Amino acid sequence: MRAIVQRVKSSSLVIDGEEYSSINKGFMVLLGVTYGDTEKDAKTLAEKIVKLRVFEDDQGKMNLSLNDVGGELQLVSQFTLYANCKDGNRPAFIDAAKPDVSVPLYEKFVEYCKELLPNKVVTGVFGADMKINLINDGPVTIILESKDGKIL
User: The CATH number of the domain where 20 resides is what?
Assistant: First the structure.
């Protein structure tokens, strides 16, 4: 399971020209699922993201988590995180899990995040054509990956 975590001042997600979800200060997370990912990976990744200390404290050091700053979380499924570009210029997506595998794991990941950050988690729509507008804060962008329940 792979996540791109972006610290944002705000983020909004639009589907079919209408705002579907938005957050203020927090993380906008793109999540990809591959074959072999498990619920343990979803839980490990959710815990790591919610506990990431990348918000500034009084001394200007990245030392605070989402909970510490009252931050929010926007979660978006993104199969293209598993694009394979080794051969040629057209990405292959064979490493991205099909919906029968990825949807339940994505939903489990969302569930874990909601348990860890009650009333502060919003999502997109799995498989929808989404437009994301965000103000990246820093910018701070972190790539996380979980395999066999461990952060790589």
Answer: 3.50.80.10
